[in-house]
Specification:
Length: 475
């Protein structure tokens, strides 16, 4: 044993009783020291309990129900480009006047800040918030039920259409078999034989008669097939009617829950979304930038789609520039095997836009750079090598760096997605695309406010863009 600092500090205060026990500073000092130890242990226990309680409170989170991306597209409008895609920033800005952290670059701070402020929002108006939240949960549940009901109805509708087609084929088969039997029978019935008729005439009648029964069997089988498919068709019709009725009921339930949600959340001012603009258009201008380091300034096609993913038929009516007859802008129309390539290499030849490749005539193209009249007067311009902050890559001084195309849709439509395809085996260097609405084929009638845009960081990403988002994503 070697003395430590505390042993020397107690020198002059030790005593030994008759049993050899050591006491320090007398009984009073021992009692004070013991009491101090007990108090310190109790305080430590209380601190541990408080820490555990705080950790449990911090780890406890309210339950969440989130819509899938498909559900959001089905039931809510695509937000305007530049507008917030969720209500967090709006709510926090209105309630606290603070700029939230960026979700992409500062996710930890962003969600921590949002959680803290939402907790304060709930504390300020707990009752209204809870009523609104319950109504929203009920609305989401109704939306999901309606989606499931319509999915079932769609499946039943496909089954019904198939059953109708099969029944039609079976009915035609029976009609043909019955007609064949009747025709053969009509050839036999008029025949009258006598004992004086030749063996050849008797044999002919026998031959026809032997053919009659197989025809009868074919007709019987065809009738049975038709009747069986009629039963299947009737069952499919009943199944579809029930599914369609359930879907209609689900629609009414959604309307009821939506009205309840609007009432419950009417006085809750924290969530005020920016209304989305009307994105319906008959003419659409597509502007593209080819800024990737790998790939070429070429495209095979540009296709617009509804929110449901269905293609919107469109044809090109105006554009900025093109390369050669084998690489014209009209190749962007559906059904043309050629592709578009940008004009470059030499001073442009000015001409009117060619909407259909079948209209290309000798002399329309001279050199490697054909520019339309409006393409020359309203050329897409890259300022300091960039278009709206996106790098433009050019091959020479005659290359515009960015390009526009103007399409006429088959009818007024709300374009929700745009898909661009590679150019005839050449990878596209597309890095940015934007879409804007126009009132005619004249590019001067196009709105400066875009309907949507998309960016692409590498050639490995698909050229498939949701106009409400800022990055590429596959359907």
């Amino acid at each position: 044993y070697s003395a430590g600092p505390d042993d020397h500090a107690l020198d002059g205060h030790k005593s030994v009783d008759q049993n050899g026990r050591v006491s320090v500073g007398g009984q009073g000092a021992a009692k004070d020291a013991l009491g101090q130890v007990v108090i310190e242990k109790e305080e430590e226990e209380e601190e541990k309990k408080e820490d555990v309680k705080m950790e449990e409170e911090e780890e406890t989170e309210p339950p969440k129900i989130e819509l899938t991306e498909e559900e959001q597209k089905m039931w809510f409008k695509v937000p305007a480009v530049g507008a917030s895609t969720d209500l967090t920033a709006t709510a926090l800005g209105q309630s606290f006047g603070e700029e939230p952290y960026d979700r992409n670059t500062q996710p930890i701070e962003y969600h921590k800040n949002a959680s803290s402020h939402y907790q304060q929002l709930i504390g300020e108006n707990a009752t209204k918030c809870q009523e609104c939240a319950r109504a929203e949960q009920a609305l989401i549940a109704a939306l999901q039920a309606a989606r499931a009901a319509h999915t079932t109805a769609q499946t039943r509708a496909v089954a019904l259409a198939t059953a109708i087609q099969v029944h039609a084929v079976a009915s035609q088969a029976f009609t043909a078999a019955e007609a064949a039997y009747t025709a053969l029978n009509s050839r036999i019935c008029p025949i009258t034989l006598t004992y004086e008729d030749s063996e050849e005439e008797h044999s002919a009648v026998v031959s026809l008669t032997q053919q009659l029964y197989p025809k009868a069997r074919e007709a019987v089988q065809a009738k049975a097939w038709r009747d069986a498919n009629k039963t299947s068709m009737d069952n499919a019709q009943s199944a579809y009617d029930a599914a369609a009725s359930a879907a209609e009921t689900a629609d009414l339930h959604v309307a009821t829950k939506r009205a309840e949600e609007e009432t419950a959340c009417a006085g809750y001012g924290g969530l005020v979304p920016t209304p989305a603009p009307d994105t319906t258009a008959l003419y659409v201008k597509v502007t593209v930038v080819f800024g990737l380091h790998s790939g070429h300034s070429t495209l095979d096609g540009i296709r617009m789609r509804w929110a449901e993913g269905l293609k919107i038929s469109a044809s090109i009516v105006n554009y900025q520039d093109e390369h050669l007859p084998a690489w014209p802008s009209c190749a962007l129309n559906d059904g043309d095997s050629r592709c578009w390539y940008e004009g470059f290499h030499e001073a442009p030849v000015i001409g009117e836009p060619i909407g259909q490749c079948a209209d290309i005539k000798n002399g329309d193209f001279q050199g490697n750079n054909r520019v339309t009249t409006q393409g020359a007067s309203h050329e897409c311009t890259c300022v300091n090598g960039k278009y709206k902050g996106h790098t433009c890559r050019t091959q020479d001084s005659y290359d515009a760096g960015c390009h526009w195309f103007l399409f006429q849709l088959e009818r007024e439509a709300q374009v929700s997605r745009i898909q661009l395809t590679q150019g005839c085996g050449f990878a596209a260097a597309l890095s940015y695309v934007e879409v804007s609405a126009c009132t005619s084929a004249d590019v001067t009638t196009c709105n400066d406010e875009i309907l949507g845009s998309g960016t692409r960081a590498s050639a490995d990403q698909p050229m498939d863009f949701d106009l409400g988002q800022l990055s590429a994503g596959a359907l």
